[in-house]
Amino acid sequence: MADTLAARRRLPLTWVGMVPFTAFAVLFLLLPTMYIVVGAFRSADGGFTFENLVNLFQPSILASYWISIKISLATAVFGCLIGFAIAAAVTLGGLPNWLRGPIMTFSGVASNFAGVPLAFAFLATLGRLGLVTVVLKQWFGFNIYAHGFNLLSFFGLTITYLFFQIPLMILIITPALDGLKREWKEAASILGASGFQYWRIVALPILWPSLLGTLALLFANSFGAVATAYALTGSSLSIVPIMLYAQIRGDVLQDPHLGYALAFGMIVITGIANFVYVWLRVRSERWVK
Known about the structure:
The protein is an all-alpha fold. Helices cover 74% and strands 0% of the residues.
């Protein structure tokens, strides 16, 4: 009896490690999110209103959402394709085993390299006076800006986002590729399947939930990025995060409650993308098991 009571008293101690994480999540994630959601339905005098959400259908705001969606889709698709190719080469291809460690380490660092440092790195590399731009112009007589390239544009921002999207794809899809059992490929080979048939009939259907889930995650990751875009393009490219910043902190366009509505729309879109990722991730893990 005494041992049972002692065990019951010790049981709550197993949850002590969750307290800092829970407090952090509540203070810096849940409460700010709820504050944004409530603010999206408030007027300037504090009353309840749908006007802020109705204002989201202004042409300029709809255009900013559309630009953000296009950039997010482009970086998600290209990030998935390139990242999958690299991860497959490392795990299943003929690359030396010693390359896996450096690639995974670099991916872990690069997937978190964003914001002002990333924007500065690309400006110093592909800006009008960047290293690559100057080398191509002086050594080869090729001016990339004279041929239509512009780092402060949709294409330039997409390339910049791919710097952290591709490594994130590598980190996420590598465990799924490791989960492909060698016996499956051997069985397919014994039955007369070619390498292409194995990937089309066996491997890709198994990886499909993971691929779609990672695509949704990369979309959400790109859609919510603001520091890199603002530091790189300023106000020259009106994506949703920059429009939101202008409404909350701007001197001319300041309308905090419209900014809350913009943030609410971003929460809905990224929330759907993350839900799709989690759902497909669970399905893929069940299938591999």
